[in-house]
Amino acid sequence: MPVAVITGASKGLGRALAGALAARGWDLVLDARGAGALEGTAAALEEAYGVRVVAVAGDVTDAGHRSWLVAAAGELGGVDLLVHNASALGAEPLVPLAGLPVEGLRRALEVNVVAALGLVQEALPWLRRSAVGAVVAVSSDAAVEAYGTWGGYGASKAALDQLAAVLGVEEPGVRVWTVDPGDMATDLYAAAVPDDDAPRPDPAGVVPAFLRLLDDRPASGRHTASALLEGVR
After folding, report:
1. pTM to 2 decimals?
2. Would you please indicate which residues are annotated as catalytic (active-site) residues?
3. What distance in Å separates the CA atoms of residue 231 and residue 172, rounded to the nearest whole number?
């Protein structure tokens, strides 16, 4: 079976995507900082779909943790798909740049960019050998639009977009896609803007966009979930 490594997989988009891949028969290595929720997710997916799911709790900014994730995938057979979904805002709730703690910005860059590259570097030997090797980096419209208070987070996602674009050029045998999923009802958004209680789509609603990438395997590049979902039933 193909093997996927998904970060930030105990809830929200990461969990929804893990469930969709498990339903297709993928074996999974899942990451999140909270061991309890992550292990619950892994057990539920194993029971529901009969696939192998390994939960590796930890922080993606820890080089040792990243090595353990890839080693766990290697024990399942390799890495065919790497999804960097783990994200940090930099401040909760979000604040204007004038008041953004430098340490918060540093944390956002470490999680959203540095850890993404570190994990890719660990997984590349496997991805290069896979017939379907692919990297998916979850981006944001804040990477390309100037939204007040979203400057630190948006800057980190813009850096992630550029990193992925260059990786796609340097690794022609591996598909590298960044995806802007659009607004979703997630804990991350609630932490970013706690006073905004407007209804938002469930993360499961954008999973078909990610599955379309895996099915169609377009050239490496940046995509929006809304465009990928056009024509998907």
Report:
1. 0.96
2. 139, 153, 157
3. 28
Burial letters 153-165, b for 16+ CB under 10 A, else e: bbbbbbbbbebbb
Q: What angle do CA 70, 6, 84 make, to 5 degrees?
A: 95
| DSSP secondary structure of 71-91 | HHHHHHT--SEEEE-----SS
- Of residues 106, 90, 77, the one with CA closest to residue 149: 90
Three-state helix/strand/coil letters over 99-155: HCCHHHHHHHHHHHHHHHHHHHHHHHHHHHHCCCCEEEEECCHHHCCCCCCCHHHHH
Q: Which two tokens stand for residue 127?
A: 């991805």
User: Using only C-alpha atoms, what is the Rg of the chain?
Assistant: 17
What are the pLDDT digits (tens) for 172-226? Answer: 999 999 999 999 999 999 999 999 989 999 999 999 999 999 999 999 999 999 9
Q: Determine the 3-state secondary structure of 231 from DSSP.
A: coil
Cα-to-chain-centroid distance, residue 140: 11
